[in-house]
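Listing S7. Sequence submitted for prediction.
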Amino acid sequence: FVITIAAAEAAVGLALLISIYRNRENVDVEEIDLLKM
């Protein structure tokens, strides 16, 4: 069960990165760090 949650969390994180990259076309490391908090 924990592995399933971890996989889903990783998928959501990857989707967020892709959406941010497509919207900005450049990934701002500071903004990503803010999202983690």
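Caption to Listing S7: primary sequence and predicted structure tokens for the chain studied. Residues 2 and 8 are 10 Å apart (CA to CA). The chain has a mean pLDDT of 76.
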